[in-house]
Amino acid sequence: MNPNENRLHALDAVRGFALLLGVAFHAALSFMPGWPPGIWAMVDNSPSQFLSDAGFVTHIFRMSLFFFIAGFFGRLLFHKLGAAGFWANRAKRIAVPLVIGWVVLFPLIMWVWSLGLAKIFNGHVPPMPEFPKTAGAFPLTHLWFLYELLILYVGVLALRALVVRVDRARKLSCLVDVLVEESIRRRIAVFTLAIPLAGALLTLPMWFYWQGIPTPDMSLIPALPSTTGFATAFIFGWLVNRSAGALSAISRGWFAHLVLGILATGWLLHTLHASPMAQPGLTKTLFALLFGVAVWGWVLGLTGAALRFLSNYSAARRYVADASYWIYLAHLPVVAAFQVWVGHWPLHWSLKYPLILVASFAVLFLSYHLLVRPTFIAQLLNGRRYPLRKPKQAPAVAADSAAIAPVARDARAPVAELRSITKKFGTTVALAGVDIDLKPGELLALLGPNGAGKTTAISLWLGLTEPDSGEVTLLGGSPLEVQRRRGLGVMMQEVELYKELKVRELVALASSYYRDPMPLEETLRRAGITALADKPYGKLSGGQKRQAQFAVAICGRPRVLFLDEPSVGLDVQAREVLWLNVRILLAEGCSIVLTTHYLEEAEALASRVAVLARGRVIAQGSVDEMRALVARRHISCETALDADLVKQWPGVLEAHRRGPRLNLVATDAEAVVRRLLTEDPGLRRLEVREAGLNEAFNELTREAA
Amino acid sequence: MNALALKNLETDDLLPPRRAANAYLTEIRYELTRTLRNPALAIPMMVLPVGLYLLFAVLLFGDAIAKDPAVGIFFFAGFAVLGVTMPALFTISSSLAVEREMGLMKLKRAQPAPAGGWLVAKLTAGVLFSALAYLPMAVAAVVTGKLPLSGMQVAAMSAALIAGTIPFCALGLMVGALVKGSAAPGYANLIYLPGCYLSGLFFPLPQSMHWQTALWPQFHVSQLAMHAAGLQKFQFIPVTMAVATLIGFTALFSAVALWRLARKG
Predict the structure, then answer these.
(1) Do A448 and A354 belong to one domain?
(2) Are residues A589 and A645 both part of a single domain?
(3) Nearest alpha carbon to residue A301 among A184, A176, A456, A399
């Protein structure tokens, strides 16, 4: 299973967002203050500085964001389908829409434009400037992005072929992977990626700051700034797909990246207001560099935020993401027509702009739903069609993320999983390649010495930390989503509750978080603290505090319960109550993860045990298997018996001779000792040692190392 | 059964509105309960500002105010800024710092607590306690006749002052997110006290010190109050400037706090 699968939903959402943002951007263009008539289909009678600024901001990043995601999915698709399959797929999804789309849309766009110009100039349209007759000149319209995409596919696959040939030992690829991940993690990528784009922008002789990266919609010959900027985005997206930890790094850096992007954007807006046209000099250089920083701050920030908050499957988002490709292809004549229509209405822009947006989206979504989604057009654009009248669809497949099957969930599927998890704190490795799962209705005991990684494992499941690589799931999704956590209850180590609140109030507060909590009195009764209900938490004894925390953990009828060292500080009686409760919860179908130092606790409750040491799972199995593993005893004596022979005896696991002494490891020590004494009456200096839990851990760790 | 339950989880993304509202309200209710049950914090916050105001405005400078009513408004504004900003800053910073130390913020993040519920609760409590501290002062000022303003002006000034507590709630969040529980009041004082004097809350500053007043949020809150009271003598910056700066302070302090909380919990 690809650990990134869940995250593709988020990236699909980002791509859809970038495309829909394009619609909003074009819808604003009739309101630009100071634009000469003729540049756009309409000049509205209520211009807006706000829409001009908002348009500039969205235009900074929307296409780079699109190409970044396109690069990511490009590599995914190439590795899934192979070279031939890839080109066949791209021809259908990109080249055909480009050609057919242009043939259908261009006349429509021209027609709407002519209506608009007639309106602007009151019917007396002045002669328009001739279309330039330079080589390659061609009015691509807004479909230029498909053309650019095809060029990038050719370029990047050629580059890839070259690298594969040269870099046979894969040294370069590994280096690049590390560079990509580390540069994102250390927030350097925002700045390094800005440099090529800034360099290309500085070559522009005439640069209106507002236009950002000049749109290459007038020529088939690639322009330097757009090709540099979008190729950087595309290639970086491709490399992010290669690198194992890059997506996690982007997800974790979302806030810092967004802040960087916003700060840079603030400065750009400020400078743009002072002088809209670039003059050679320091300001232009700085503008170009900070423009690049803004681009990458927004791209990485928005992608990260989506990964962080939108990684789950949502039918509504899926629908919009599917629709976005069609909507962007078809939007221009629709949006322009509405702009022309309302252009002379005596209304403020703050009314007309939303009106254009709502009307355009209504027409476009309706056309998608009726004419595209159920027909061959959806087959062509998105890879599948949906019958018009049918109830709920299974989670479908995105345009390019193609064929990511929904995860089958049978009744025995784990309720919580850690998959190939690596987590470092600074240089300390807390978890190294850990796989653990929790099945429905079982109690999994996590055992291990201090610092083994137990608490880190639990923190991951609780959504408190995120892994450096690997995947964490809780109840079928990411624990960062609050609706997943609504199914959990937790009792953490070293947590104190509000000391001023009474036990009853603490439980009531925690209950308010859940959809269907237990009645308050029942929670208190089950935790055995009805008598303490009106005592402030600060006045409870250590053991009573743990009981109150247990009540808080179970109040929401959790389906998964995490108990981190629950019995520390409990007296015997309180521990009995706790164990009884745990058994009741198990009988009710709750799944429980328990960490403990006490082997007897695990023995009393667990259906399965996982032993962690130094960040690895060194043993995993049923309680009996673990008991056998831990119940080894060491026997040592001076005897003439042959080590190899003794090793054959039942119950003997190991036998070594060191000088006169024979050292044995045995599971059934009594029987082995009896037989030793029988077979060698001259046996002397017999020693038998219990292998404690700690020793077992140490031994297992040594074996694991 | 289990597969079915998982499916439900996917579709039932949100709590029903009533339960969601209840979650926020419960959080607010207990935040207030906790602060009220902590008399060591609550009493000085309530009593100190009104006490100081009565001492200075009635006993010590009563005559000066009688001569020039503008001085009375100036005094009231100064002590009122103190009165409303202190509870906001100190209750929030120390409670957040202590809760972080106790691991409670971590627990809240693990529990399905509503997004930002604790934040809403702390802000509400901060603003409400400020209002509670402000009310006796306002009553005292009006009753003793030290506040020669129309009813509308008093209302506008009160609203400006209460709204002015929000940046201090944010400052409290920042301090609480950065330092340990026992150190929080100390650090809060370290930031807060110099600002009270250097922003010219209690006595007009010499010209040579005017350049630095804009650095203190207290100054901008007092400017809001002066504009609301319509006292031109003490209006040093346009009201829009004061509002924008306070919004800027709020954004900066909250960003630092949230950034730090996201990293350290």
Answers:
(1) no
(2) no
(3) A184
Mutate to test the interface with A, among B4, B7, B10 (most CBs of A within 10 A): B10
Residue stretches of chain B with pLDDT short of 50: 1-11
A256 contacts on B by Cβ (under 8 Å): 259
- The overall pTM is greater than 0.80: no
- Give yes or no for A463 touching B (CB within 8 A): yes
Full strand arrangement of the beta sheet holding A428-438: A428-438, A416-425, A469-474
Alpha carbons A436 and A438: distance in angstroms, whole number: 7
Q: Do A490 and B111 touch (CB under 8 A)?
A: yes
Q: Which of A358, A382, A406 is the last residue of a domain?
A: A382
- CA distance, residue B154 to nearest chain A CA (Å): 35
Residue A505 is nearest to which of B30, B99, B112, comparing CB atoms? B30
Residue A632 — φ and ψ, nearest 5°?
A: -65, 145
Domain layout of chain B by residue ranges: 23-264
Angle at A304 between CA A300 and CA A306, to 5 degrees: 125
CATH assignment of the domain containing A524: 3.40.50.300
- Residues A271, A352 within the same domain: yes
Total domains in chain A come to: 3
Ranges of H-type helices in A343-406: 349-367, 376-382
Q: Residue A641: give the domain boundaries.
A: 631-704
> What local confidence, expressed as pLDDT, does residue B3 receive?
42
Minimum Cα–Cα distance from A440: chain B residue: B2
Assess whether A430 and A561 both reside in one domain: yes
Residues of chain A short of pLDDT 70, as ranges, are 1-7, 129, 131, 389-412, 627-631, 691-705
Mean pLDDT for chain B? Answer: 85
How confident is the model over A424-476, as pLDDT tens digits? 888 888 898 899 999 998 999 998 777 788 889 999 999 888 888 888 999 88
pLDDT, tens digit, 9 for 90 and up, residues A204-244: 888 999 999 999 988 888 999 999 999 999 999 999 998 87
Residues A104 and A190 in one domain: yes
Give the CA angle between residues A582, A529, A576 to the nearest 5°: 40
- Examine residue A2 and state whether it is found in any structural domain, yes or no: no
**CB < 8 Å to B107, chain A:** 490, 492, 495, 497
Co-location of A371 and A438 in the same domain: no
Chain A residues within an 8 Å CB radius of B111: 485, 490, 510, 513
What is the spatial distance between Cα A297 and Cα A189, in angstroms, rounded to a whole number? 9
Q: What is the ipTM of this complex?
A: 0.85
